[in-house]
Amino acid sequence: MFVNRRDVQIQWGDCDPANIVYYPRYFAMFDDSTSIMFEAAGFSKQDIIHKYGLVGIPMVDTRAKFHIPSTHGEWIRIESRIESFKRSSFEVVHNVFKADALAIEAFETRVLVGKHPDDPTKLKSAPMPPEIIERFMRG
């Protein structure tokens, strides 16, 4: 399975008054990590949208388990991978590490979405392209 790793330094604006990362900032980091993972695998989000006639790849579910907090100036490593594919959706797992300790386990479900063929004012899920599945499964 393809895994993308990136190091992120916690910035002042990521933190709350207690100097720990305000949890919504992590979800922004996870959203970036998904896009960066796709680019590292050779599929930019814009290319996927244009090539397959999509409107977007929205997140439809997300959650996280927080084990260890992070503060301003610290470095974390975010490891992202696709856990599974379904017809039009996929599950992403982000594991965040401080040094070698697991700090956060995060999960998101995303869906490929295009315009409905019978009513362009509505949206409809779109099938996952086989070449994307193959690339992420191959590693």
Automatic annotation (TrEMBL):
CDD domains: 4HBT. Keywords: Hydrolase. Pfam families: 4HBT_2. One of its GO terms (molecular function) is fatty acyl-CoA hydrolase activity. It comes from the Bacteria. The keyword 4Fe-4S does not apply. The keyword RNA-binding does not apply. This is Acyl-CoA thioesterase. It comes from Bradyrhizobium australiense. The lineage of its organism: Bacteria, Pseudomonadati, Pseudomonadota, Alphaproteobacteria, Hyphomicrobiales.
